[in-house]
Specification:
Helix content of chain B: 25-40%
Strand content of chain A: 15-25%
Oligomer: heterodimer
Shape of chain B: globular
Largest sheet of chain A: 5 strands, parallel
Strand content of chain B: 25-35%
Number of strands of chain B: 16
Number of helices of chain B: 10
Distance between the termini of chain A: 22 Å
Radius of gyration of chain A: 24 Å
Structural class of chain B: alpha/beta
Radius of gyration of chain B: 19 Å
Helix content of chain A: 25-40%
Order of helices and strands of chain B: EEHEEEEHEEHEHEEHEHEEEHEHHH
Number of strands of chain A: 18
Distance between the termini of chain B: 32 Å
Strand order of the largest sheet of chain A: 3-2-1-4-16
Amino acid sequence: MAKKKTIRTIPQERTPVQEQDPRERARNFGEVSLGYRLEEALVEAERCLQCADEPCVRGCPVGIDIPGFIQKITEKHHQGAYDIITDTNLLPSICGRVCPQENQCEGVCTVGDTLEPVAIGRLERFVGDMAIREGWANIPYIEPNGYRVGIVGAGPAGMACAADMAKAGCEVVVYEAFHQPGGVLKYGIPDFRLPNDVIDAEIEKLRRLGIRFECNTLVGRLFTIEQMVTEMGFHAVFIGTGAGYPSFMGIPGESLNGVLSANELLTRCNLMRARDFPNFDTPLQPGKRVTVIGAGNTAMDAMRVSLRLGAEKVYCIYRRTKAEAPARAEEVHHAEEEGIDFNWLTSPIELLGDASNAVRAMRCIRMELGEPDDSGRRRPVPVPGSEFEIETDMVVFAIGTNANPILGQTAKLKLNKRGYIETDDSLATSIAGVYAGGDIVTGAATVIQAMGAGRTAARSMKAYLGLRDTDSVYTPDTDDPAGRRFGIPAAEHNFARVRLA
Amino acid sequence: MSPEPSQSFEIVAREDFSDVTYLLEVRHPMLARAARAGQFVIVMEHEHGERIPLTIADFDREAGTVTLVIQAVGKTTREMQKNCRVGTSLYAMVGPMGIPSHIGGKKKVVCVGGGLGVAPIFPQARAWKESGAYVIGVLGFRNRGLVFWEDKFRACCDELILCTDDGSAGIKGLVTEGIKQAIAKHADIEELVAIGPPVMMKGCAEATRPHRIKTMVSLNPVMVDGTGMCGGCRVKIGESVKFACVDGPDFDGHLVDFDDLMARLTRYRTAEKEAVERWQESCRMPGKEALAAEPAPAIDDRPSTDG
């Protein structure tokens, strides 16, 4: 290796990434960020100090060997970088795009103490996209172990859990209620942030691991969780159904036409392709003046989708300030660039309709920040006499979701007070062999947190099934040569395929 | 029971009751096994299609099939009428969705079905009969020519009252006339179940309210996923807001805000109309004379087609 890099010798500026022009992109569904080109990636990779304590790895919910893959990029050994990432995370193209890196790996990056942190997410995406283009796949040799694992929900938690269980040698079936796998990645996150063909490419890799996806299957109603572990012969089950059930505020006028949840807007547009109506049959009456309530990532998606569907004006209504907005900083920044009209410290109090029962305006009240509440954020309180009206023909609620009730209705799973599935630290539910993770356990969170939960559950499921955890360091407990093949113990049946030069 | 390989949702039988109403029997053994009265499915005709909720009209556990009775009112249902032949397959069918109806007890029950609601009330009437109830069926049609499944209903109802708008079969008048007759004859009716257009279900609820007869109605609002995820199907039930797909579809008819439901059903009417017109235009192109003779069916007040 060349001489040790120091904070002074690395490129000082974070390498910018090419983006579509805000005015242009606000009218198309093409991806906003174009991703690093090779030379940009090489410059950015140089900024990693390869420091000894690797805080980024601990900052990553799935623990990717970040310095390792960046080192491979600097060596221009991109497939090597891909193999390192995919040892822990099979979905780099997705995570590189949608992870909130500023709170995770990049948030704790050593370079970030002095300069801007290494753009780990962009590098991960660079490697993942290159793998899709080149058709690389990191498929380890898998020896079937005879165990069958059922996964409920083909979203990020289910995909991550399925990948780990398949790599451990289990026969994995993933059930999905929609007609396509992907969960929130498909129905929720719009194409300009995460193109559907990227998701399809990553799912294809899971199929190559032997995972079977069964769509159009509503678990709970078509068969129950109990049936899965009894009659259907699954030795372990993972539930990753997501939170689902969207919240409304309970203010007057919510049932007016033109008022909908962000989930409905996004599902119609993203999964059902209502934006291509009438080539696709699902309708969507696009608003001209759209108000979106909430300031999380889903709210940002709803606003930016509305713009692309042809809205002339899009407002964001949020009762706290920009500092408290739960969305990723980058998403808020992109939305601002595209011309979203942000109304911080504003809360809706009533929706007003016209004679045909369609929404025509929203009555709002200004807020100010008072004393801190339980969450540590200052509680917004209404300013008396500050009511005003916004003219609008479409109101979108993006204020979070509640627990989906279907599995609670149909299985004897222990739920908590809010209706989410109760688990212990190993993510085991009240039914033996059944594990759960992601939004259906924690309430709405991020894609990577769901993936992390899927992997934690997979670890517990392997322990439950008595399988060696391939993540932990393996020390052979026998020197019996008869138990070895090619000098490798037979129990070690999960080594990566050796690539010969 | 083992997980089946990717199903194909093959159509194994079809019957046309009139020029707008048709029956499809779809193969799906697992669904046929799981289905209970009061539940629904969501189907997609093709990859570009919308997801439409359809109440399960019948299921045959032995044959492994599910029966759907569909009224061609929107683009998708008309397209299905044209394309869904025996031997073809649906792109997707998922279910059974919703909470099954609470059926049980040896009591006197009235099962009311009107228009599109006639078919889905059948599994309810049969289930009540099987649980030992005395079942009075009340069915509403526009005229004699549109009557179907009379024999099936006769087999599971202790009494059957047919109502037609023009009096060409049974009594003349709406199903509410039939309900009045049934109530006059039987003072001990304990429950009434009604499925049909919202305006009909509203009429049924009003007919039983003075008699304090428990009235259950099955709602079919606009849905996308049918799993509680989009909230498009929210309905006002008394003071609370419920999602018909996971909290229903059966609700207490005396608490349902039908006016709200009917107003919300019009949400996508403009787009639906546009889709129908565009589709008819595209159908007309190959064989003009054949389709020109066909009268455009009036858009029903129950838009069963929506994504």
